[in-house]
Design goal:
This protein is of the alpha/beta class. It is 45% helix and 21% strand. It is elongated and about 85 Å long.
Length: 319
């Protein structure tokens, strides 16, 4: 009985062992092309050698994975079941190898952020970072999509929102807020919240990307103001801020996106009444990447820069 159990265990062990990697690679290419000759050409081996590798895999498996017909091959049921999983496995291996190679060889740092934040806050400050850290080659990807770190070759993401970064390193930077903003020539005419309704309220409609606290309905309800619909509606916050600089409307602006315009005197905040939710900027990256030198340097730099936003909160009234 003991010998039978031992032999059964050993049989299961050997049957579960993977075949040689070359045999799996030969199968994956042949299954993709449904041609031994085309697969052999891709792998730079002879058709005979590829056929031998597939026979080795079939012997290891104990079942055929191809039916050899006249001038062509087709997958068996087992082969059809095996093919997508083997392809996924090689794709994962290739991706892991590419990521490891980039980590070893690279001197650049790729950062992704939303287009408005990238253009309005991050890009204007890049000169300071480059002058202090000329050894780091920065690359940027502006996107509202949640990019995949490995597939899209992203090192670090600046994300905004309530945050659900489970499984990643995540570090809070700043809780953003909004308040009415106008061009300087309108500022004196707005002394109390109700005065905002005298002017067109510039709206935003970003196709589901807008948070509720960026809508005039929310601010007006909290501060007892009757909302008007006289203002134009833009799909991006940077467009609405640009209109506020050049037009006669009131913008409900996010401080992070408007800071450069406020510092330049192109926009002013005539009221203290503001609105803040638990929506924040975070630095996000795969666990472990936060310890890499270039990432650490950027983290320290952006955290120091973000402290300038806190100064604008002084004297604000937050609903």
């Amino acid at each position: 009985m003991t010998i039978k159990v031992y032999l059964t265990i050993m049989s299961l062990y050997f049957n579960n062992r993977l075949p040689p990697l070359n045999a799996l690679k030969a199968f994956e290419a042949a299954a993709r092309h449904l041609s031994f000759s085309n697969a052999a050409a891709e792998l730079h081996v002879t058709p005979a050698a590829l056929s031998q590798q597939i026979k080795s895999l079939e012997a290891h498996l104990g079942a055929p994975v191809f039916l050899r017909l006249n001038r062509r091959v087709v997958l068996t049921d087992i082969g059809r079941m095996l093919s997508p999983k083997v392809s996924d496995g090689f794709e994962t291996l290739q991706l892991a190898w590419s990521v490891a190679l980039r980590r070893v060889k690279k001197q650049h740092l790729t950062v992704t952020a939303g287009p408005a934040f990238m253009a309005g806050w991050l890009a204007p400050r890049m000169g300071g970072f480059v002058s202090t850290h000329p050894e780091v080659e920065l690359r940027f990807t502006a996107s509202l999509r949640m990019l995949n770190f490995e597939r899209d070759e992203i090192d670090l993401a600046v994300r905004f929102g309530a945050g659900d970064d489970e499984g990643y390193f995540s570090e809070d930077l700043f809780v953003d807020w909004v308040t009415p903003m106008v061009s300087p020539h309108l500022a004196e005419q707005i002394q109390v919240p109700a005065d905002v309704a005298k002017f067109p309220m510039v709206g935003q409609d970003s196709g589901g990307q807008l948070h509720d606290y960026e809508r005039w309905d929310t601010w007006c309800e909290l501060y007892g103001v009757e909302k008007n619909t006289d203002g134009p509606v833009f799909t991006t916050p940077d467009s609405s801020l640009t209109y506020g600089v050049n037009g006669d409307g009131v913008v409900l602006g996010r401080i992070s996106l408007a800071q450069h315009l406020l510092e330049a005197g192109q926009l002013v905040m005539p009221l203290k009444q503001s609105l803040r939710r638990n929506l924040r900027y975070r630095l996000v990256c795969p666990i472990g990447v936060e310890k890499e030198r270039n990432v650490r340097v950027f983290r320290e730099w952006i955290k120091a820069e973000m402290t300038t936003l806190e100064a604008w909160s002084t004297g604000r009234v937050f609903a």
